[in-house]
Amino acid sequence: MLRFLVRRILLGAVVMWVVATAVFILYFVAPHNVALLLAGRGATEQRIQEVAERLGLNQPILTQYGHYLSRLLHGNLGFSYVNNESVLTIIKQDIPITFSVAIGGVIFWLLIGVGAGILAATRPRSIADRLVTFFALVFYSAPTFVIGEMLLLLFFYRLHLLGFNFFPGGGYEPFTHSVGGWAQHLILPWLTLALIEAATYARLTRASMLDVLGDDYIRTARSKGLSERRVIFRHALRSAATPIVTQTGVDFGALLGGVVVTETIFGLPGLGQQIVQSITRQDLPVIIGIVLLASAFIVAANIIVDALYAVLDPRVRLS
Amino acid sequence: MSVGPEMSELVEEAIAPAGQTPRGIEGRSPWQLAWERLRHDKVAIASAVTIVLIVLMAICAPLVAKIVGHGPNTQYSFGTSDSGLPVGPSSKFLFGADELGRDVFVRVFYGARISLLAGVVASLLAVAAGVIIGLLAGYLGRIVDTVLSRFMDVVLSMPYLIFAIALVSVVGPSLSVSIAVIAFFSFAAVGRVVRGQVLSLSQREFVEAARSLGAGPIRIMFVDILPNVLAQVIVYATLLVPAAIVFEATLSFFGLGVTPPTATWGGMIAEAQNYYQVAWWMLVMPSVFLLLLTLAFNLLGDSVRDAFDPRYTRTTAK
């Protein structure tokens, strides 16, 4: 287990280094002039030179790369080109919002997805099964932004026309401000994130449960006289959960993409909206900071998921 | 699976001596079996018909524009009301007009072109790259495998949408950039699956036989092993297309796909964002077609997978 963890963490470090380098190449070696862009329209040659000087953009590429890596290793993400704010501060400001969106989304997605999957698997070919299978496929096929816009159209706007103003059309209310307001502002974003992912999980859980329910040990458990609930939740679900856990690890990348889209649609000022804005402003330090953070998150999530694997299924030996 | 086409031909000859084919018993390759199953799968037929119809939409877009008499990018003054709001569906504009007074109906037809083009081309590129890299990694092993596998690991653990947005914003948006970005972030999943298959196939007797007959590694990889992974690759490719279509639409939604005024479904939905309260058609029309296309590809992909799976029969599913 320990050897496994060490190996995975080393691999994770390599991934981070490659990502950092890729971002560096993208922005510092790519043929576009950051200094020119930042100096503004109609800036004099001298002004452009000054900007380049200040940002260290006229040093040799390898020197810049060295500085860049050593700064990152010291946990220094630099300062925004646009307003000179520390990137760390910006991230700290935005992260509670992104975290709120993501965590609720994940909870909803697992509840809806796994719940619907179990429902469908325990009553195969019933109306419930068919409905779950159908809706899972529809949501699975839909892009995040289509679901988000549709939810806005139906739940915010149509209900608003009917004089029912429960769902806000966007914006964010801090958790510390009011828990109810927080949840109220986030319910549509959560659903947007959850519905798409839940579809994958409903399909996966259904297939995996159906597979497991045909196993001999389930028949044994039933013939011992255990209640159906116990058989399904304690015996079947545990081994059916393995592919679900793997998928969760794979989907963290998709989750982050979904968060970017969701924040944009619902006007939530989190990291997703920040990176979209930073990209239009070419604010490199902020972009780099968020990309690295996102990658680190995925790497860490994957390691945890792989370790969970062994805990969940004793047959898996990590080597 | 894994009985190659050559193998099944041998079986066929053994069962039926040359010249006299006994009726009723026929050797059929896995491909024929899959095709048989697919032909009788109503969902597969319906999905295929939907896809063909949308392909026809894409091809006939200029024709439709001519019949309706509205260009895809022409702004009509009667498309917006006196207060500047887009007018709804009517005999003039079947699907309504957008905020610039353009015909949504015609634009939906033109949008099909971009979605299909990006989806199919990006998937083909991703599959080709994935197959080649998977074959090399799985068959050559050792250092080649280590390097290629780690490379695929890295690509798979990147936050791809964020990366894609960043990449496009540097290089500048265009259709070919979108396709390249989508292909790059999709090939690794294919590569990983192919590598796994090749790894086990290359231990099999028929590969050893080929090698002892003096076949080189290229021949073994592409002539002997490739046909045996093809079924799985086809399944993967069908499921990759809808993912690529969604990816392209998402890039367009962020204004990082094909540059305006070219009509794309993602771009149209993005424009509708500020108008959905007064012009639902701007949002609903492109969304419905986008959903229809991805749904059809996903259903078809599922059916293709079932058709190739010898254990699976739809009627007796547990």
Features:
A: 319 residues; B: 318 residues; 11 helices; elongated
Q: How do you describe this structure in short?
A:
The complex is a heterodimer of chains A (319) and B (318). With 319 residues, chain A is an all-alpha fold.
Give the chain pair forming the largest contact, with residue counts: A-B, 52 and 44 residues
Task: Tell me roughly what share of residues is in helical segments of chain B.
Answer: 55-70%
Task: Report how far the terminal alpha carbons of chain B are from each other.
Answer: 22 Å
Percentage of residues in DSSP E strands of chain B: under 5%
What is the secondary structure topology, with strand pairs?
The complex is a heterodimer of chains A (319) and B (318).
Chain A: H1 2-29, H2 34-39, H3 45-54, H4 61-73, H5 87-122, H6 127-141, H7 144-161, H8 179-213, H9 216-223, H10 228-266, H11 271-281, H12 284-312
Chain B: H1 5-15, H2 30-39, H3 42-68, H4 104-140, H5 142-156, H6 160-171, H7 175-201, H8 205-212, H9 217-253, H10 265-272, H11 280-308
Helix pairs in contact in B: 2-11, 3-4, 3-11, 4-5, 4-7, 4-9, 4-11, 5-7, 6-7, 7-9, 8-9, 9-10, 9-11, 10-11
